[in-house]
Amino acid sequence: MRDLCVFLDAGHGGIDRNGNYVTAPSKQFQHARGTFHNGRWFYEGVFNRIITDRVAAKLRNLNIDCLVVSHEYVDTPLAQRVDMANWYHRNYKPGIFISNHANASNGNARGYEIYTSPGRTPSDALADLHWTNVKDLLGTRISMRPDLSDGDNDKEANFFVLVRTAMPAILVEHLFFDNYDDALLLMDDNVQDLFAEATVRTVIQWLKQ
Fold it and tell me: What pTM was computed for the model?
């Protein structure tokens, strides 16, 4: 197996020590019913940290090196996160970059998406592995939203963490937090664990390549 470091990014900010959610209004949604992170409020940055922390714990239990480049709760600049990953990639161990998010649209959209940078790059192979693992573990419970226009399942975008990273990088959108049914799934402990487990399996498969 190859020796590498997994760079993990929890998108946006979380809840500070005073109990305040410290990220953009577009990264939260108040549902008409249900209980989420703060009453009926779903906070994307909180969910992103739950998944990231679960992945990190599983990797460390397997003695696989990982580094969380996002802050405990501060919404640090994207350049800072990417610079940290790139520095360790060049000076410590080469690695892969995984940015965890949840999506939002109009309240009606549902499903799971993976993004890579435009064009055919090693990131596409990483995304292919991860798509398969998520589908195998959760495909009967969630909707998968592929973009098959270029022959693979991932979508492409010029997101900063995808085009400025010096290693293969994917950005994962774990369902739509402004859709009530998807939000309930995102709060489900077993679903969260399966999302994290899929990431760990992807890392192990990448290490073996």
Answer: 0.97
CA 172/CA 169 separation, integer angstroms? 10
Q: Which stretch of DSSP H or E encloses residue 86?
A: helix 78-91
Q: Which two tokens stand for residue 169?
A: 């990088």
Which of 116, 112, 95, 101 has its CA nearest to residue 206?
95
Interatomic CA distance for residues 56 and 136, integer angstroms: 21
Residue range 81-110, pLDDT digits in tens: 999 999 999 999 999 999 999 999 999 999
Tokens of 176: 């739509």
Per CATH, the number for 5-14+23-208 is: 3.40.630.40
Residue type, 35: T
Residues of the chain with pLDDT > 90, as a percent, come to 97
Q: What is the CA radius of gyration of the chain?
A: 16
